[in-house]
Design brief:
295 residues, alpha+beta, five-stranded mixed beta sheet, 6 helices, elongated
Length: 295
Amino acid sequence: MSIYRYPLRKLGDSDDFLEIKILEYKAPGVTTGSSITGISQKTSSDSLKGSTPKDFIYLPVPQSIEDTNAVDWGDDSLNSIAAYGLAASKNVIGSADGVQTLGNEIINAIGAAGDVVISGNGQDLGTSFFASQAVNALGANVSLEGLISRATGKVLNPNMELLFKGVKLRSFNFSYDLVARDRDEAAQIKGMITTLKKAMAPRKSSGSGGAGGGLFVSAPNVFQLTYKKGSQNHPFLHTFKPTALLNMSVDYTGSGTYATYSDATPVHIKLTMAFQELNPVYYEDYTDDLAGVGY
């Protein structure tokens, strides 16, 4: 296990810094159950709990600190005709005698259609439906909604709502200017960059063909980021879930020109890293022992 620190000085109890722990990735696996509702799938974050870090990296708190929490919502519509068809299909699927139920639903639909068609709007709807079928039989591409709008200036009420679509993963970007003040600090910077590059690289699986001759490629290491104040987690700043290092760039001419010390260490290096969390943030993650503002 290696420990790298920039700047190279002792960290006191009042110092704020970013701790990066490098962990070996552990696949969450897939669990099975007697039914779909009985399946409880393990996450990558669960698999990594209690893992022994391979390396530590300590960096100053970045100049810009921010977190963005987001979920996916989108508009969705269901007009009355589609809603009626959905209800009818559920009755057919859930019945013991599907054929008989299907026949009953067809009779009900015919009756309901008859009740609608006797009204002015219903006549427009029925006429437009049959007209669209006739025109499309001749090779046109006309929708029922389009004909209704053209003929009457009306559309079926879409009953539009904003509905929850899913979760999103958070991303975090960090940028550091690394300027070595002596040989020891230069060695720390060099070891830090090499360690990060190695940790984010996938591994070739060994096989019968020798090292690297296997069929699969193993996942890279992952990273646990933590804002710290001394030896404790930061009492205010946000918390991270385990992350993957998606992108890392190193600019060895940070000042716009090539310049090195006598040992060939570049005078100014710019390090940029882009991390993404392995799992989304859920309501249940906000436990009483969570430090700071939470995730």
